[in-house]
Amino acid sequence: MKVQSGGISGTVHFARDIVRDWRSFEEVDVGRWWGYYTAMLNRGVIPMATGADEQWTTSVAHTHADVARHLNAFEEVAESMKQKQAAMSIVEAI
Amino acid sequence: MHTWEEELQAYRRRTKKSERAWQAAKRRIPFGVNSNYRLVDPYPLYIRKAKGSKIWDVDGNEYVDFNMAFGALVAGHSHPVLAKAMRERVSNGTIFGYESVDAGRLAEHICHRFNVDRLKFSMTGLDATLFAVRLARAVTGRRRILKFEGCYHGSHDALMVSIKPRKEVSGDPKHPNVVLSSKGLLKELVETAIVAPFNDIDATESLALVHRDDVAGIILEPVPMNMGYVQPEPGFLEGLRAVADEIGAILIFDEVKTCGKWYGGAEEAFHVTPDLKVLGKAIGGGFPLAAVGGKSSILEQVVPGQISHAGTFNANPLSISAGLVTLTKILTRPGVRHAQGIGNELAKGYADVIIASR
Q1: Interface of A with B in 28-47 (CB under 8 A)
Q2: Which residue from A minimizes the CA distance to B77?
Q3: With contact defined as beta carbons under 8 Å apart, do B223 and B253 qualify?
Q4: In 10 A of CB B241, how many CB atoms?
Q5: B348 given a catalytic annotation
Q6: Helices B4-14 + B16-26 axis angle, to 10
Q7: Are the beta carbons of A34 and B41 closer than 8 angstroms?
Q8: Is B46 within 8 Å of B38 (Cβ atoms)?
Q9: Staple B75 to which of A17, B49, B105, B330, CB 3.0 to 4.6 Å?
Q10: Could you tell me which residues come within 8 angstroms of residue B21 by beta carbon, excluding any fewer than 6 positions away?
Q11: B254 a catalytic residue
């Protein structure tokens, strides 16, 4: 997993290497993203916009408590992800 | 120990009304969504209400929302100042078919804040990028638009190429094929597009030079946000500025998303000034509002009868009021600084969790 961020947005890429262009983005494990996203929803957090190609956005309304709730859920999900696999390919869905 | 199957079943159990809503919507709306980006397995959430940083689905589940309408809600859901202003606006007319004084006020604020001389308002990022492409072609008298592989600029034909090209058809990484991104597009689009690899200035320059007399514009998100979040490498944006200057093309920053990430948009973060900026999403505080701004020498050519720009809902009083209140009363420097601080805290937390979970 790799994190890139700036300003009020960022993302976690489920990939071995930093994504720097489309060809490296193709190495993102979309199945793992889906598992992460679904598991986060089950813990009361919409972690980012819908899609492995999206990012999170924070706002003037977000609080430190919101971040703590997000990270507590992610900690639990990241731990459980070590055991899981879900094959899924990138689909053109525009 | 949870498995993905257990997570899937848990999702189904707690979102039964969303599934019913999706099944009902599908009868009349293909796939039950009105933007394909909203579709996700096994079915999307259907939402009842939202406030601040929280959102509630039709089953009553509460979520902390970090989607924020794909980045459109830097002001948060239903900010009280905006909600009050919009209630007053709705009571006094929602569309006139004439201009309002506030459109000029908002244009003044945007020009100062985002370092553009003049602008035209549109409704969405889609029609604003469409207009930016038309403008680049009109002022240069050229045909081709150079875009980057994996980048998305709204669902209109000119830029619907190589958004998510499959490996089998994408070709040489240094010289990517132009791949149509939807059925229903004309094959001729391939002849007016050039697709380059993001973060590779040498490859981009050589592709631009091949067609140097026919490149109208170079368009990109300074930070591509349809590959997650991709940092432009040092020198890349500066290099594009130099290439555009060398060949006489219009450099267009699609800031539909990035304009809301920093107070003054991407220029504040990367110190590169394009010829045109396309603004959208966050500037409307949750209402549809977009703008194409840039140098006077380009915008002054938008003369009625020569370069078309029109739209019944362009600069409608609802969107303009929302933009004015959002930018001047909510997304102030302190407001944006707060959101950035929260964002930095979240990103650092992710990095720490990833290290700890190895």
Answers
A1: 28, 34-35, 37-39, 41-42, 44-47
A2: A61
A3: no
A4: 16
A5: no
A6: 80
A7: yes
A8: no
A9: B330
A10: B32, B46, B58
A11: yes
Closest CA to B292 of B97, B123, B64: B123
ipTM: 0.95
Contact call for B228 and A62, based on CB within 8 A: no
SS3 of A66-94: the string is HHHHHHHHHHHHHHHHCCCCCCCCCCCCC
Quote the tokens at residue A69.
């709730």
Q: Which of B227, B259, B263, B281 to mutate to test the interface with A (most CBs of A within 10 A)?
A: B227
Given B43, B46, B152, B263, the catalytic residue = B152
- Look at residues B347, B265, B328, B255 and name the one whose alpha carbon lies nearest to residue B75: B328
Among chain B residues, CA nearest to A43? B63
Collapse the DSSP code of B75 into the 3-class scheme (helix H, G, I; strand E, B; otherwise coil) and give the result: coil
Amino acid at site B42: P
Q: What distance in Å separates residue A40's CA from the closest CA in chain B?
A: 9
Q: What residues in A contact B65, CB-CB < 8 Å? A: 46
Distance from CA of B204 to the nearest CA of A (A): 13
Strand order in the sheet with A56-57: A2-6, A9-13, A56-57
- In order of A61, A89, B80, B151, B161, the CA distances from A21 in angstroms are 32, 18, 40, 9, 16
Q: For residue A85, what pLDDT band results from cuts at 50, 70 and 90?
A: low
Residue whose pair of structure tokens reads 């979309």 in the numeric block? A30
Residue from B263, B320, B338 nearest B85 by CA: B320
Q: What is the residue whose two structure tokens read 């492995």?
A: A52
Give the nearest partner residue to A62 out of B10, B342, B347, using CB atoms.
B342
Nearest CA in chain A to B270: A6
Handedness of CA B306, B308, B312, B318 (dihedral sign): negative
Task: Provide, for chain B, the percentages of residues in helix, strand and coil under a 3-state DSSP scheme, each rounded to the nearest 5.
Answer: 45, 15, 40
Using pLDDT thresholds of 50, 70 and 90, give the confidence band for residue B1.
very low
To probe the interface with A, which of B18, B35, B68 has the most A CB atoms within 10 Å? Answer: B68
Phi then psi for residue B288, to 5 deg, are: -70, 120
Q: Is residue B157 annotated as part of the catalytic site, yes or no?
A: no
Model confidence band, residue A91 (pLDDT cutoffs 50, 70, 90): low
pLDDT tens-digit profile of B342-357?
A: 999 999 999 999 999 8
- pLDDT digit string (tens) for B169-219? 999 999 999 999 999 999 999 899 999 999 999 999 999 999 999 999 999
Residue A88 scores a pLDDT above 80: no
